[in-house]
Amino acid sequence: MRLTPLFPLLALPAFCQNFFPLAEGNEWNYRGPRGASLKISVGAPTGSFGRLYFPLTGYAPRALLVRRDDAGNLLQFDPVFKLESPVTVFGPADATFQSGAGFCGEEGTVRGPARLDQWDAVEIRYRVRTCADAGLEQELFAANIGLVRRISQTIAGPVAVELESARIGGLTFRRSAAGPRVEVAVGLAETSLTRPAAGGPLTIQGSIEVAVAGPAALPVQFSSSQRFDVVLIGPDGRQRWVWSADKLFAAVASSEVWTGVTRFEWTMVAPDFEPFEPGVYRVQAWIAAAGDPKRLAATVPVAVQ
Questions:
Q1: Fewer C-beta neighbours within 10 Å, C or N terminus of the chain?
Q2: For residue 185, which phi and psi values (nearest 5 degrees)?
Q3: Among the listed residues 189, 162, 173, the one whose alpha carbon sits nearest the alpha carbon of residue 36
Q4: How does DSSP classify residue 294?
Q5: Is-above-0.70 flag for pTM?
Q6: Which CATH code, of 2.60.40.2360, 2.60.40.10, 3.20.20.410, 2.40.50.180, is assigned to 171-304?
Q7: Are 27 and 54 in contact (CB under 8 A)?
């Protein structure tokens, strides 16, 4: 498969784009000066009043149940009062809103297009009315990525955190200020499989692809001849099969420098003694680099019927 850009919709009006991708397992990690950090994650959706809401943790001081409305804005649901209120509004430009995320009663204003490194983003500025030395000042959201930068006011002054890594659907993104931009994607020949008859083996074919962008290359060190690995995880979270379980690799260390796109294809034949109940499974693949083997990893769902 060919990697497609994470932000191909920039020709559309800002309020038509997806500035906060909501899917179970999505995760964003941020870093800032003086040890500042932030982690945002999306949980399994739940239904209420005919709508689907996703648990969102880390974005606000408390966990939220959220959904995107038809305009692409982020709404939260209060399960006690059975009411919806805005969390973040992405457009049109100059639109104002009262954030219901529970920071400090901030009033947000959409400032319009902005730029951060490789991202074309939308900027939101906040005005705090109820807190001293606390609350949000600015957020930048990139289409199909989500929040890429946040500035918060603290007693020590403004503190900015910027996106360091993210897992969005089947794609993992990692940012390095001094190095290249690296994107990892897992592709499957089929995303819906039928359980084998009479307990036969389940065969899954796919690939893992690492795309390196920017002027710098990506150095990768290996402790053996193994270059990647794949694991199949069941609906219950239990590991069902590992691609490398029946393979041997030479214990020869090596170092490679990657540019452009590096791709590995694989076929996983899960054992015939393993019962495969219907459900959504996960295929996780990673580059078997020395030191941090899952630094370059991605996960994609596959349905077994």
A1: C
A2: -135, 145
A3: 162
A4: T
A5: no
A6: 2.60.40.2360
A7: no
Q: Is the pLDDT reported for residue 300 higher than 90?
A: no
Tokens linked to 41: 């994650």
State residue 147's pLDDT score: 93
b/e for 165-184, b at 16 or more Cβ within 10 A? bbbbbbbbbbbeeeebbbbb
Residue 77: which residues within 8 A CB-CB, separation 6 or more? 48, 51, 53, 65, 66, 67, 83, 84
**Every domain of the chain and the residues it spans:** 14-168, 171-304
Which residues is 83 bridged to in the sheet?
Answer: 78
- CB 63 within 8 Å of CB 56: yes
Task: Tell whether the model's pLDDT for residue 249 goes beyond 90.
Answer: yes
Most distant pair of Cα atoms in the chain: their distance: 67
Residue type, 108: G
| pLDDT tens-digit map of 150-184 | 988 776 667 888 888 888 876 777 765 555 667 78
The answer for residues whose C-beta is within 8 angstroms of residue 253's C-beta and 6 or more apart is: 221, 222, 223, 224, 290
The amino acid sitting at 56 is L
pLDDT tens-digit map of 79-134: 888 899 999 999 888 899 988 666 677 889 998 787 666 667 899 988 876 676 67
Q: What average pLDDT does range 42-67 have in this prediction?
A: 91
β-strand pairing of 46-48 with 192-193: unpaired
